[in-house]
Amino acid sequence: MREREGVTGPHPSVAAIRNAVRESLDGCDIGTRVWVAVSGGPDSLALAAATGYVGRKEGYLTGAIIVDHGLQPGSAEVAARAAEQVKRAGIHTVFIERVTVGRDGGLEAAARNARYAALDRRIDEVGGHHPHLLTGHTMDDQAETVLLALARGSGARALSGIPARRGRIVRPLLSLRRKDTVAACQALGLDPWHDPSNSVTDGPRRSALRTQVMPALVEVLGPGVVSGLARSAALLQADADELDRQARSALGSAPSSRDEQWRCDMLAALPDAIRSRMIKMLAEHRGAGSLTAAHVNAVDQLIVGYRGQGAVSLPGGYEARREYGRLVITRPHTLGERS
Fold first, then answer.
1. Domain of 270?
2. Rounded to an integer, what distance in angstroms lies between the CA atom of residue 190 and that of residue 182?
3. Which end of the chain is more exposed for a tag (fewer CB within 10 A), N or C?
4. Residue 302: inside a domain, yes or no?
5. What is the pTM of this model?
6. Residue 214, domain member (yes or no)
């Protein structure tokens, strides 16, 4: 790959993405394995090029993983083309993972779950020193995520958008715009794939948001709406992190005679924001699946609005119920054994 540079250095978008990758990996040791999740689009392709460049400079072992969801005709050809572009961008360790996407939770959620499961499997199989996985989410993705969460009536955690880090997943481009990745690909002579579902008005909700809602918001509120939404997400993320910390602290200090039983008067005395988080933590600690806001609200009514109502069904075959002034979260078939 020959980079189209001016006399003063790389194109500003190329430099910005390289700097974002370098900063996100600051402190990593030489030999750290750094993977890039690649779709073949401009965001992930520009990220792969920057990661390959930074990796060579810093001594990281870089690779790319492409997930073929098999949801569109010609998906195998798209994946193969993405692999060629990644190698052109300077990363030569490339894996294509083919997955079968179910329908649990809707197509978009099922595809996301299948994708991250495939990424995790490949990373674990290869191993290496403290592996990182970089994804190409941009500020535009962040703004879209906040709007979708707002439309669902979500709480602070969901409204805080996409975290810059979660476990080994790192998202270096959240401070950069989608137009920067497109410009970087052009400057580097890369030919990204443009997902046709991203530009149709009757496609997935995020596509409709991207093609109809965001342009209308920019027209009415000005070009700063995207950065404003991303800034709000960052502020809410800090607040949500602190509330989670307080909930974990309350969870760790609360007296309980049994792991699955908690005094309702103690829970009711807590601030709403802390109690709702504790409910979610309690249930998921017991083994229940991820709770929705409706689950949390129903369990909360067992604590602060108890009128003799029965058990609340939770994901994973669990249920919550009130017994003798205590909140009990367990599987239904173990209730008799533990009472």
1. 256-338
2. 9
3. C
4. yes
5. 0.81
6. no
